[in-house]
Design brief:
single chain; about 375 residues; alpha+beta; five-stranded mixed sheet; phosphoprotein; HATPase_C_sf; Sig_transdc_His_kin_sub3_dim/P; two-component regulatory system; EC 2.7.13.3
Length: about 375
């Protein structure tokens, strides 16, 4: 559209001037008009940015000379040149070119005695310059906003990729810790219990050999084997206890423990329903689910005055969904915002690559959806 406007501001003054000139001068005017169009096209397509400014200055001089030669409407071609530099140069050079063009425009109008025409032409030049300046600034702001948007989108992709790597890294760290602990325990069993069992086997073979001839000695060695077997069994029990954490530690982040904690209040009924095949989760995911359930139940009792809370666990192939709903008072949708509790739940869920959803259809419900990479 801008290109059509530029060429139209050359052709319309030329056509208007051609009606005012004698027929023998029309061919010369057509030639000069074609030269002016060629200069505009060459400046637009072939010249670099700085050279385009020089071409615009040369075009102003040519239009001024042509206006003085024809004494028609060719001075209006200055408005075409205005579009050539006001949209491309953000430095102070465009204001210098504008001042030069204003001076040359008035020189072009010297042959016209009408002061009203001169005033109108100058006002049109100033108005056009302001409109093009605003257009250029708007385009620059749009490009800057698009660049900022692209950068933010790129950062969002990087952050999402970093979050996924963090979740994978946490899973690998937990697997590595489990592997190291298993390796340590296997070494302990091999070095301690294994040696004891080998020694006991050798003693039993010795008992078999000496028992027929020395029954007292065989009985004494049998008692020693019994005592050492007792000691080996105790070593095995200690090792197994170290492999299995205490019951209270394993239940510290369980929903059963949560329900038992709130069961002391006779006015509150908390139920838990499970769908799908339950499976062990990473400790990081268990903590997130436990903390979110704890926060949701606390909010239901404190803010919604609920008397019934339902915790629904759904185990799927690639994720686990936990929905905590209550029969309490629904919050005002217009005034409902994410306080510290919901914000903390959302932040915890996001850190493990999950999603937090809030439902207010009949019952207030909060759903925590977490992925389960590497679930067994």
């Amino acid at each position: 559209m801008l290109l059509l406007l530029r060429y139209a501001l050359i052709l319309f003054p030329a056509v208007s001037t051609a009606y005012m000139l004698p027929l023998e001068q029309s061919g010369q005017l057509a030639f000069y008009t074609l030269v002016l169009l060629a200069v505009a096209e060459i400046s637009r397509t072939w010249l670099p940015g700085r050279a385009q400014n020089l071409a615009a200055a040369a075009e102003m001089l040519f239009v001024t000379w042509l206006s003085l030669q024809t004494e028609g409407m060719m001075f209006a071609c200055h408005y075409s040149t205005l579009t050539a530099y006001m949209l491309k140069e953000r430095s102070g050079l465009r204001w210098f070119l504008l001042a030069l063009q204003a001076m040359l425009l008035n020189v072009s109008l010297n042959a016209h005695p009408d002061m009203e025409l001169k005033l109108t032409a100058n006002l049109l030049l100033a108005t056009g310059a302001l409109l093009l300046y605003g257009w250029a600034e708007t385009g620059d702001r749009k490009r800057e906003l698009e660049q900022v948007y692209d950068e933010l989108r790129s950062k969002a992709y990087e952050l999402d990729a970093a979050r996924r790597r963090l979740v994978e890294y946490a899973g690998k760290v937990e697997q590595l810790a489990q592997t190291e602990e298993r390796t340590r325990i296997s070494h302990e069993i091999h070095d301690d219990l294994g040696h004891k069992l080998i020694r006991l086997k050798m003693m039993l073979e010795a008992i078999i050999r000496i028992s027929p001839g020395q029954p007292e000695k065989g009985m004494e060695m049998t008692r020693i084997v019994r005592d050492q077997l007792t000691e080996a069994m105790e070593t095995l029990r200690r090792t197994v206890r170290r492999m299995k954490p205490p019951a209270e530690e394993g239940q510290s982040f369980s929903l059963k423990r949560l329900i038992e904690d709130f069961a002391a209040d006779p006015e509150v009924q908390i139920r838990c329903e499970i769908a799908g095949m339950p499976r062990p989760l990473y400790p990081s995911l268990e903590i997130v689910l436990y903390r979110n359930a704890q926060e949701a139940v606390t909010n239901a009792l404190r803010h919604g005055q609920a008397t019934e809370v339902l915790i629904e666990m759904s185990f799927e192939e690639s994720n686990v969904a936990m929905t905590v709903s209550n029969n309490g008072t629904l919050p005002d949708s217009a005034a409902m915002g994410k306080g510290l509790g919901l914000s903390g739940m959302e932040e915890r869920t996001r850190l493990v690559g999950g999603e937090l959803r809030i439902h207010t259809d009949g019952r207030f419900a909060v759903t925590t959806l977490v992925p389960t990479p590497g679930a067994q």
